[in-house]
Model the fold of this input.
Amino acid sequence: MKTKKLKKKRLGNIEYTEGSGNVFADLGIPNPEEALAKSKIVMKIDALIKKKKLTQAQAAKLLKISQPKVSLLLRGYLTDFSLERLLRFLNDLGQDVVISIMPSSHRGQGSTMIGDSPSNATIAALAK
Done:
């Protein structure tokens, strides 16, 4: 998914910049598409931990990591966690993760989309 260029806009006397849709790209974070995908997956992990009313210690045991690592994960420190590992955490929390491969719907390079249903709703998309 290409990030769109930031546009300057004006509302009365106030000038502002409209975001691209990916805050990580807007902030100049390296690999912004991956950072967005990871953050969306972690939001789902956090929601599942809350839904199951797990403590961080209980979640740590279930995810086979230490409680301090759960704390880091839930506070957004994601550099130590690969996308694959985060997907396994979803499995550990009782979720099926479905990866579907199909021809690109637009010309050129395909994209990777992450969502929580098989609909067209995209949570995050990875691109080169």
Q: What stands out?
A: The domain at 30-102 is CATH 1.10.260.40 (434 Repressor (Amino-terminal Domain)). The chain has five helices and four strands. The beta strands are 7-11, 14-18, 112-114, 124-126. Residues 68 and 98 are 29 Å apart (CA to CA).
